[in-house]
Amino acid sequence: MMQPGLAEPQRKPILVITSQVVRGGISGRGLTFALERIGHDVWFLPTILLPWHPGQGKGTRIVPALEDFKSLTADLAASPKLAEIGAVLSGYLGSPDQAGPIADLVKAVKAANPDAPYLCDPVLGDLQGDAGSLYVPKATAQAVRDELVPLADIVTPNAFELGWLSGREVTNEMQALAAARTLGNERVLVTSSPALRRNAIANLLAAPRTAIAAEHAAIASPPHGTGDLMAGLFLSNLLAGFDDEEALKRASASVFELVARSVKKGADELLFAEEQQSVVKAMALVTSRRVLETKVRA
């Protein structure tokens, strides 16, 4: 149900810049399906082509030649239809050299449509047991940190990525919020953030005037692609006119429900086609709460 006084949701085109897989629902493949199912047109610029998620086995990596990639981004930046784009979302980079052309394209979109937000999903690494590690070359991680994150209106790191970007320890909610505030972006959404409840997982949003956590039960061995989907749905909800808390709750509920339904059916990938209603309108309930800022800065 829309908030009182809101018009019908806006479904502006979204420019997605990230990886493409042949099989599975991670990254650009799942994002494009989900956003189009909601009603957005999608401009999709792949940064790399893979047969499947690298965690499912070794596969060929096809990264476009830098000059070709720069030509593509330049073509898009010069498009007379650029002002139609309502938002930009970038994710996985195939090489560190792609950061510069992507940054130029983001600036071109913002020049054509100053209201278009840029969401940077810094796909850099993840927790493994009690530790974490980068799964992209350090040069790529540094390029994302130095060239893309500073341009972003919204950044969506997981807990490990937030720690790497901020240079801070992130093992509890207060540390996560403090680290998020150091990045300096208007909104930082920490996916898979430490939760207060046992056997739970949180999405923690550091917004301009508040901080909000949305928690739900943790699901063992979830398929890959949840961070990509969370970023895309949160961005779509903001474009539709929902406030920060409602945008966060709706995105969290959709991701949680899609993961739960996929795992229940024994799938090793998110079942976007079979369970697409979870993306459009989830029935799962996700609790949210305000996080007191004074506790972070004390």
Task: Give me the strand/helix succession.
Answer: EHEHEHEEEHEHHEEEHHHEH
Strand content: 15-25%
Q: Which stretches are low in confidence, meaning pLDDT under 50 for 5 or more residues running?
A: none
The CATH homologous superfamily: Ribokinase
Structure in words:
This protein is α/β, with parallel strands linked by helices and 298 residues long. It has a single domain (14-297), classed as Ribokinase (UDP-N-acetylmuramoyl-L-alanine:D-glutamate ligase). It has helices at residues 27-38, 66-77, 99-112, 138-148, 159-166, 173-183, 226-239, 244-264, 277-280, 293-297; strands at 14-21, 42-50, 87-90, 118-120, 125-128, 131-134, 154-155, 187-193, 200-206, 211-217, 287-290. Strand 8 and strand 9 (200-206) form a beta hairpin. The radius of gyration is 18 Å and the shape is globular. 47% of the residues are buried. The mean pLDDT is 91.
Give a quick set of tags describing it:
single chain, 298 residues, alpha/beta, UDP-N-acetylmuramoyl-L-alanine:D-glutamate ligase, 9-stranded mixed β-sheet, two-stranded antiparallel sheet, 10 helices, globular
